[in-house]
Amino acid sequence: MICCLLFISLEGLAGRYDELLRHLSAGISLFRSDLPSSTDKERAMTTKLAEMFCRLGVESSNFMERDPSVSGVEKWYRSGRTQDLQSPKPFSNLDEASSALRQLDVFFDEKPWHYEGSDDPNKASLVEEATRKLQDALDQWTGRLNALYELRKEDISIEGEQQYRNLRLRQKYWQMSIDSYSSDKAAARLETFEPFLAAAKEAAAPLIALKQPTFSLDGDLISGLAFVASTTEDDETKVQALDLLWRLNRREGLLDSRDIVEMHELARALETVTEEVEFDEAWKPTAAAGIPTIIERLRKSLGQLNI
One GO molecular function term (predicted)? Predict the structure, then answer.
């Protein structure tokens, strides 16, 4: 699995997304096998790997034409060896909190945004029920993290401050996602996105200060800002998100912050044209996956119009 992650990192940086998806699928499939878990150290390592593959699998499903299934990771999480998400006890440490938050991706099959574009006559009630269940789970997780912080505030401030901030950022990303589907007007409200944007600016500051490209296999900063830029109906909020993405010059997992900005700029340019744009269904981009596909399609379309 570690070898798969190394290949995924190299292929992501090189833009070889087809190869990346093959190694991602291979890594995820390994979770269907019996994995080392006889010692606490082995268990901790396997849990951390499960988090990373789960994150990459879910992320790929949002942007890839042929995304790998996360069923292998799901089977491992559902094996009965993972922690009880309904436990009222404080988390024992930040790693346990991180694993529990990642499990929301697996255990909650019905999320509010899954019904977007649905013609189901019961759509409203289904969205409401999915929102309630997911919000309850997130509230419980937040309560357990708060309890851990109160118990071990000094230890966390010394050794785990960055991990704690990353967890808070991820929690705000989840809350923003839930809130943005809470009503038809949520995407137009500033308060839907402000808590995450504030946390994102704080997290981005030290990375921007480096004045060089940065990379991480895992993370919620780029995907969260991309969500803001794609979802908000407020122009100023969108500009804030895109400005942060450009200044970050960072790649997290499958997402490159400047690719996202370029995609939005090209899409905006295409929206301003008055001529009808035709997409050739047989045309295939050189990088047949994800955001690079979208960028290449947009460039081709604008090139046809001599823009």
Answer: metal ion binding
